[in-house]
Amino acid sequence: MTDIDKIDHRILQELSGSGRLPNTELAERVGLSPSACLRRVQTLERIGVIRGYRAVLDSTRLGRGFVAYITVGLNDHTTVAQAAFETAISAAPEVVECHNITGSVEYLLRVEVSDLGAYKAFHADTLGTLPQVNALTTFVVMASPKDLRA
Length: 150
Known about the structure:
CATH architecture of the largest domain: 2-Layer Sandwich
Structural class: alpha+beta
Strand order of the largest sheet: 2-3-1-4
Largest sheet: 4 strands, antiparallel
Order of helices and strands: HHHEHEEHE
Oligomer: single chain
CATH superfamily of the largest domain: Lrp/AsnC effector binding domain/regulation of amino acid metabolism (RAM) domain
CATH topology of the largest domain: Alpha-Beta Plaits
Helix content: 25-40%
Shape: elongated
Number of domains: 2
Mean pLDDT: 94
CATH class of the largest domain: Alpha Beta
Number of helices: 5
């Protein structure tokens, strides 16, 4: 466990909202001098609390406005079957997230495609052809009133 104080938490909160915030403005917002603020940010990066910075993309403007979550149950629960499934899913550009989960299924996928037709093709031509897959359940995203992913 890393010792993170209140100022570090404020820095992380500000950077989570805007990773491109200039250090001088960040320092002002958290009540530090620019040099002290920069040292703290660099420490948070060095110890791995800040793992990177990303651009937040608008999937709809990129032609990927159809979003679905899919639970995937495997027919074989071995390490080899999981590795083969994960390799296949890593190669699928439609899958933007893949999580190995607990419960009645093994995986939760977030899929982004242009429309229902593109989803149907992905479902049949990619997921439907994987020999490890036993069960699929799709949840179509209708709206995302809260989404803090960066």
